Amino acid sequence: MDSFGLKVIFITCLVFVPLERLFAMHPEQKVFRRGWANDLIFLLLNGMLIKLGLLAVIVASIFAAAQIVPASVQATVGGLPYWVQIPLVILLSDLGFYWTHRMFHAVPWLWRFHAIHHSIEELDWLAATRVHPVDQILTKGVSLVPLVALGFSEWAIGVYALLYQWQSVLIHANLRIGFGPLRWLFASPEFHHWHHSTNREARDKNFAGQLSFLDALFGSLHLPRGQVPTAYGLDQPMPQRYVPQLIYPFVGDRIIQSTSDAVVIGETMRAPEVGPSPRPPVEAGV
Predict the structure, then answer these.
(1) In whole angstroms, what is the distance from residue 281 CA to residue 101 CA?
(2) Which among 112, 111, 129 is positioned nearest to 120, based on CA atoms?
(3) What is the value of pTM for the model shown?
(4) Closest Cα to residue 157, out of 178, 170, 143?
(5) What does the alpha-carbon distance between residue 188 and residue 210 come to, in Å, rounded to a whole number?
(6) What does the DSSP 8-state code read for residue 232?
(7) How many Å apart are CA 229 and CA 159, to the nearest integer?
(8) What does the pLDDT look like over 54-82, one tens digit per residue?
(9) Alpha helices, DSSP H only, in the chain?
(10) Under 8 Å between Cβ of 286 and 106
């Protein structure tokens, strides 16, 4: 049994590492870039935690839906043709993803979890894995709850899950691949790289996971033509190792010792720099 999904990891490497060498958005970036080993640990260890959390969410959703959603509604939705179900699944799930993602930027205590993902300073296919389990469980959970509750077929949800997984890797990849006019409909590497940018004009923009037009619809799109971001990360110090990053949302700045070496629980941290103040959250509900 491949508990760590090593086969999928190997296939993903075979696909994206050559593509990132051929069509790099940032050609100077190395394959083994800063934080690569840390993100590999996230990839190997986070999967089981997230699966267990999502399983609990799905079981609770099934139980609640049985009490709330009429069986006739579930039967009707589950009986729709797959060519109708799949687009509806993608739209509903990404609406949930969009607003949950936006709340993770707007609510300070949620931002503490999401800041782990934004601490990445060089994006590539592996960067998608640096995400706190609480962040991922809540975001994916909100996306999945309406799908399960309304009775969409397991096959349609499975197709969505597969598309989501691969697109998540794609949009973080170090790829300068244009989607042409489709860039206004679907999230691309260019679209999501701006979300991670330190550029102030791009702050708290491009929240969608798959459908970029949602950001246009809700006024949060930033996609300047012919430009790509040049710097990523946070304005605040952040632990750069797996365990300190897991506990950071619960202890916050207490994890940071004010020493010249910026040592945190035996791990080396990026020392605070003189510069912009920490990323301010957007106002909730905006």
Answers:
(1) 12
(2) 129
(3) 0.86
(4) 143
(5) 8
(6) B
(7) 31
(8) 999 989 988 988 889 999 999 999 999 99
(9) 6-22, 36-68, 71-78, 82-106, 108-118, 133-150, 154-172, 189-196, 213-217, 242-251
(10) yes
